[in-house]
Write a structure and sequence with these properties.
- The protein has 138 residues and is of the alpha+beta class.
- The chain is built from four helices and seven strands, in the order αβββαββαββα.
- It has a four-stranded antiparallel β-sheet, with helices on both faces. A three-stranded antiparallel β-sheet has the order 1-2-3.
- It is elongated and about 65 Å long.
Length: 138
Amino acid sequence: FDLGSSALRLEALHQAEETSTQVATSRITLVQETSKQYGLLIFTPVQDNATGVLKTRGHTLGVFRIGTMVSYAREGINEHVSLHVFDTNDSGNVLHSDTHLETVEEVNKIGNVIWTTLWVGGREWNIGVQVTPSFRNE
């Protein structure tokens, strides 16, 4: 797959090179994705300073399925707890929601949610942990 054929991928690749830092894309559908979940790529520049001039030699690439990441993160967490992930840098777009909610406002409307921030490849993610109504009714 040509990473330069996608504007989102190419933008992150250029940003990683320009800033000499790890950079994540906004949510994307991975080329190899067969289910309905978003993914992201993280580019890290590989640089050489042998001549006294910092020069980018290439990039490493991490490919991540967000739903799979959340599944691993929630191992051992009560089934009555929902996890929600939103990308603040991408207009608050949903990256994952256990209850298929699309906005922070929809999650807050249900209530009983605690929010925290996680930085991923230069992107700000809002992570919501929410006790489900079924748990409150037990």
